[in-house]
Specification:
Helix content is about 60%, strand content about 0%. The chain is mainly α and about 240 residues long. It has a single domain, classed as LemA-like domain (de novo design (two linked rop proteins), Up-down Bundle). The longest helix has about 35 residues.
Length: about 240
Amino acid sequence: MAGPHRRVTKPALEFGEPHHVITFKSFASAAIVVLAPLFIVGCGVNTIPTKEEAAKAQWAEVQNQFQRRSDLIPNLVNTVKGYAAQEKSVLVEVTEARASATQVKVDASTITNPAAFQQYAQAQDKLSGVLGRLMMIQERYPDLKSNENFLALQSQLEGTENRIAIARRDYNQSVQDFNTTLRTFPQVFWAKTMYSSSKPMQLFAASAQAQSAPTVSFDTAPPPSPMAAQPGAPPPAPATK
């Protein structure tokens, strides 16, 4: 006679994974979600855009200071003209240099375009040179030198030139930092992949005026007298009463 019927039970997870395996996988997935952003940040994925934006901000400050100087020039020229209208050639040069500098169109893309950047920098350097000549004129005209309006404009211009120098220096430092980042590990990996559109930026070079001290001379020889003796000419006849 057959023995008593026995009921055979199957494991609860016969067709699935053990409970402890499911728990581990869930924990691993959650850990990846939490740790992945930290890993990406740790690899410097945000370094390039951060430094790029910093350099662009410094570029905007350079443009701001150059514009400030440009805004001062018309009043300065008019003030000088009122006292030294005969210095027409210098006044015309300053006006033309200002027009050339303001006609150069610049935007954020200029700093990665060598030709456009050099055109802008050279126009500003030329304006700096002729402005220096304009400011030298005051030595010949005491009334201009002591004019309150001229002194105020001169002070503003000097302050702006200092701000320009500082802005250019800070811009160069930011650009050098950014350009180095594009070429060094591990950021070079991101530069070749996620940020392949980020290009090295241009640096301001020292202008010709900054590399050599200008020669300034206020010795102006008087025009020759019509009665002056010419070489080889006989001496003038003595005056008769």
